[in-house]
Amino acid sequence: MRATxxxxxxxxxxxxxxxxxxVDALSFTLxxxxxxxxxxxxxxxxxxxxxxxxxxxxxxxxxxxxxxxRVDELSDPMHTVGALLDARAVHPQRSxxxxxxxxxxxxxxxxxxxxxxxxxxxxxxxxxxxxxGFSLGMQQRLxxxxxxxxxxxxxxxxxxLNGLDPDGILWARxxxxxxxxxxxxxLFSSHLMSExxxxxxxxxxxxxxxxxADAPLGEVMDAYSTRRVLVRSEKRDxxxxxxxxxGCVFVERDGGGFEVVGSSPEAVGRIAAHERxxxxxxxxxxxxxEQIFLAMTRDVQGEQxxxxxxxxxxxx
Length: 316
Known about the structure:
Elements: E1 8-17, E2 20-30, E3 35-39, H1 46-53, E4 61-66, H2 77-80, E5 81-84, H3 96-106, H4 112-120, H5 136-148, E6 154-158, H6 166-181, E7 185-189, H7 193-199, E8 202-207, E9 210-216, H8 217-224, E10 227-233, H9 236-245, E11 249-253, E12 257-261, H10 265-274, E13 279-286, H11 289-314
Parallel strand pairs: 3-7, 3-8, 5-6, 6-7
Antiparallel strand pairs: 1-2, 1-4, 8-9, 10-12, 10-13, 11-12
């Protein structure tokens, strides 16, 4: 099924709580057919940003629009955007079916969608059970079902993988990829960096309310990752000497190999071939998204700490 395509724009989204700046002039665009990953450490402003986008918190400055329209001005909001922010926000005595039926009635969504989404998220067999007896993973699936109820063009998922087992995580990953393939706009946040790396096409990274990166996943990986060549040979001493003679920067690795920084695998291979050293292993390793994310946010925190220190020194 091909969905109506809707872009989402944030224009200088800003939120102050007294003297605290929770979100600092964020501007970005979410595009149809793309899974955008939303990253930031705890307290970075992610949840506040999502709540402002959805009209649940009023921005101090700026706005967010869906196809050029603010969420509170949409004529059919549930068909435009569906969101999972807190899967636990369901009355525990209400069944999954009745919860979705109430949401459908409030959003003028056909009753037929209730059974459709229950089956889609794998809760059809437990639809009549009280939600209070659901596991965290089942609650997450119900939250996702609620987000999908209006068949929205835009889906926003805040930590949708919490509580899901490995099969559930694979299911959620596949769902988000399928939604994007249908032309929908998908935004999701997660602390599971390995899943973010597998699922996202594009990344938004924020820290202390400020935008650090807004780029395709591959560009972020290439721009911030350190590449290392891993090489191993039975002639370990000869390889060490050859790398040293060639001026390579390297360290020894467990298992009898070397990690060469700042060289390409082709260059390392030529060095070994010139010395007639047979290699048993030659590969390239790069930083994971988790390593890149930690380095990016650590650098910003360090810079802000230095700025605060400088301000204190400058005070007479």
